Amino acid sequence: AKRARAHGGTIVFIDEIHRFNKAQQDAILPHVERGDIIFIGATTENPSFEVNSALLSRSRVFVLASLSPDEIGVVVDRALADPERGLAGAAVLEPDARAKLIALADGDARSALNALELAFELASARVARAPVISAKDVEEAMQRRALRYDRAGDEHYDLISAFIKTVRDSDPDGAVYWLARMLEAGEDPMFVARRLVILAAEDIGLGDPQALPIATAAHYATHAIGMPEAMLPLVEATLYLARAKKSNSGLRAYAAAKAAIEETGTLPVPLHLRNAPTGLMKQLGYGKDYQYAHDFDDAKVEQQHLPDELKGRTFFEP
């Protein structure tokens, strides 16, 4: 260990550190603390959740962003010209093909290089010497835009968060964009449908009581028909919810009632509101003096409906 520190330390690089369990990560910790090793870990997951807090606290976190279009362009140009690891000038990449390759790579250099190699093979099948790579070759090589998405990772939660907040903010354009981002990247449509049902009840509620039935219908339709046609009921429900009047009065009322329960405990039900199926219960006063709502105009009755300790308390505010 002393020799390692004297010569700058032994570098230990662990790719996909999130695949190590807690015990395995703990085994690294004492060596990091003593300075026996210079630890470098790489992960595509959020280290706050996937790396032990003790190891994380002794490390510096560097967030690696996707490459810019200009940077992808540099990678592509180098690959075209590199005589050892690239195409060594053996092919010509048309300007529109270069632009399409950069756009479809979506910041992923590996995707760009793999597509360039395959596009070169496609072009070489037509012309053996100095093939010209066209935009069509690039499209066939990539098949579809390589959207970065992990249905169990940060992108999954970031996109659904953006989707929900945009619908809540009544922005139909933003809402349909985030919906498309998720579905085109392969998100489970039933996950989106469930979130729409929750959103309709939580953020629209009594502002538009039709929102919940529409979201529920979209959930059923998504389950019944599946993708790709399930996109239709999902986008319809998304746009309706984005344009609907918003109200979270139900959520706030429940939160207030819950807080009252935590404050006062399980208070007894007032006698006049209790059920009285037996003679003994009637003798004990169960149901006595209860006023039946339909005996009154508009079925409204002014009688106490809360325990005595909460009499007069207001939970619901429109």
Instruction: Identify the CATH class of the largest domain.
Output: Mainly Alpha
Total number of beta strands: 4
| N/C terminus separation | 68 Å
In the sheet with the most strands, the strands line up as 1-2
Secondary structure category: mainly alpha
Q: Briefly note the CATH topology name of the largest domain.
A: Zinc Finger, Delta Prime, domain 3
Largest sheet: 2 strands, parallel
Taking all residues together, what is the mean pLDDT? 89
What is the N-to-C succession of helices and strands? HEHEHHHEHHEHHHHHHHH
Number of domains: 4
Describe this structure as you would to a colleague.
- The chain is mostly helical.
- The chain folds into four domains: 2-57, Rossmann fold (3-Layer(aba) Sandwich); 69-142, Helicase, Ruva Protein, domain 3; 154-243, Up-down Bundle (Zinc Finger, Delta Prime, domain 3); 266-310, no CATH class.
- Helix content is 53%, strand content 5%.
- The chain is built from 15 helices and four strands.
- The strands form two sheets. Strands 1-2 form a two-stranded parallel sheet.
- Strand 1 (10-15), helix 2 and strand 2 form a beta-alpha-beta unit.
- Helix 5 (69-81) packs across helix 6, helix 9 runs antiparallel to helix 10 (172-184) and helix 11 (189-204) packs antiparallel against helix 12 (211-225).
- The N and C termini lie far apart (68 Å).
- The mean pLDDT is 89.
